[in-house]
Design goal:
- The protein has four helices and ten strands, in the order ββαβαββαβαββββ.
- By secondary structure, the chain is an alpha/beta fold.
- It has a single domain, classed as Dihydrofolate Reductase, subunit A (3-Layer(aba) Sandwich).
- The strands form two sheets. An eight-stranded mixed β-sheet has the order 5-4-3-6-1-7-10-9, sandwiched between helices. Strands 2-8 form a two-stranded antiparallel ribbon.
- Strand 3, helix 2 and strand 4 form a beta-alpha-beta unit.
- The chain is globular.
- The model has no long low-confidence stretch (mean pLDDT 97).
- It binds NADP nicotinamide-adenine-dinucleotide phosphate.
- Keywords: NADP, One-carbon metabolism, Oxidoreductase.
Length: 163
């Protein structure tokens, strides 16, 4: 099963200068909780923004280059290569964690969406691609707790593809 996991602002911004436009530790914890022990897949730019493979997870990266040689990281040179591998070799949930370029190409394959909606318009340069939510059913909403470290209103939403 292929799941998307990301956070976006009210204006659909997800990135700025190669990084996240906000500081929201509660969302980082949510990301860590969902992905630890599981498989994540990123585009090359998002992978490099992490600085290193994320620990206690199987890291997969999609890139046309041969420059990513980090130990234990599985590299795919096309979307098709990734999809074929996943179908054959991965039974568990795979978390696609961005960025926009990779999300856009994988929308047709997404079975579940873990979306953090942040109620704020952010400055940025990277937008979440369009997703037709008519194809998905909202199955869970958890309101995020606003505090001095998490200053925006936010909600963790989960959508399931309608078969
Ligand atoms: N808010 C969130 O939840 C969230 C999540 C993830 C990322 N982000 C943000 O999004 C931004 C990065 O997103 P992005 O769209 O610019 O980049 P990206 O999707 O992370 O990476 C794009 C790269 O992936 C590779 N790629 C894409 N399609 C490919 C294909 N079909 N075959 C082979 N390689 C392919 C290419 O790498 P090569 O050039 O090496 O070939 C391409 O340059 C950053 O600001 C990041 O912080 C936000």
């Amino acid at each position: 099963m292929i799941s998307f996991l990301w956070a976006e602002g009210s204006n659909h911004i997800i990135g700025k200068n190669g990084n996240l436009p906000w500081h929201l530790p509660a969302d980082m914890r949510y990301f860590k909780k969902l992905t630890t022990g599981n498989t994540i897949v990123t585009g090359r730019k998002t992978y490099l923004s992490f600085g290193k493979p994320l620990p206690n997870r199987k890291n997969m990266v999609i890139t046309t280059s041969n420059n990513i040689n980090d130990a234990g990281v599985l590299v795919f040179h096309s979307i098709n290569e990734f999809i074929e591998y996943s179908k054959k070799h991965v039974d568990e949930e795979i978390f696609v964690v961005g960025g926009a370029n990779i999300f856009e190409q994988l929308v047709p394959y997404a079975d579940r969406l873990y979306k953090t909606e942040i109620e704020h318009d952010f400055d940025g340069d990277t937008y979440m691609p369009t997703i037709n939510y008519d194809n998905f059913k909202l199955i869970n909403t958890i309101p995020g707790k606003v505090d001095d470290k998490n200053i925006y209103d936010f909600n963790f939403k989960v959508f399931q593809k309608i078969k």
